Amino acid sequence: MALLITDECINCDVCEPECPNGAISQGDEIYIIDPALCTECVGHYDEPQCISVCPVDCIIVNPEHTESKEQLQAKYEKLSGK
């Protein structure tokens, strides 16, 4: 399951540097998460770092990109070359 930043985002800039996969970037109005790069921090951390630092709790599971832990692990391995 890739994550999604909702329109409650206040553009505080704390999530982007926390993403180990570089999946978060500034969109037209708010930050966005690239589902092709988001592993919910599987392979890096026990929990998604963007969610843990977000001061307004605007990061949710993206219902259009549901993946199992195994799929997220496989994506991590592909992205990291492992």
Automatic annotation (TrEMBL):
Output a single Gene Ontology CC term carried by this record.
cytoplasm
Tell me the keywords, alphabetical order.
4Fe-4S, Electron transport, Iron, Iron-sulfur, Metal-binding, Repeat, Transport
User: Which parts of the sequence belong to the 4Fe-4S ferredoxin-type domain?
Assistant: 1-29, 31-64
A single Pfam family, by name? Answer: Fer4
What InterPro entries is this protein classified in? 4Fe4S_Fe-S-bd, 4Fe4S_Fe_S_CS, PSI_iron-sulfur_center, YfhL-like
- The molecule here is called 4Fe-4S ferredoxin
Molecular function terms, GO-annotated: 4 iron, 4 sulfur cluster binding; metal ion binding
PROSITE patterns of this UniProt entry? 4FE4S_FER_1, 4FE4S_FER_2
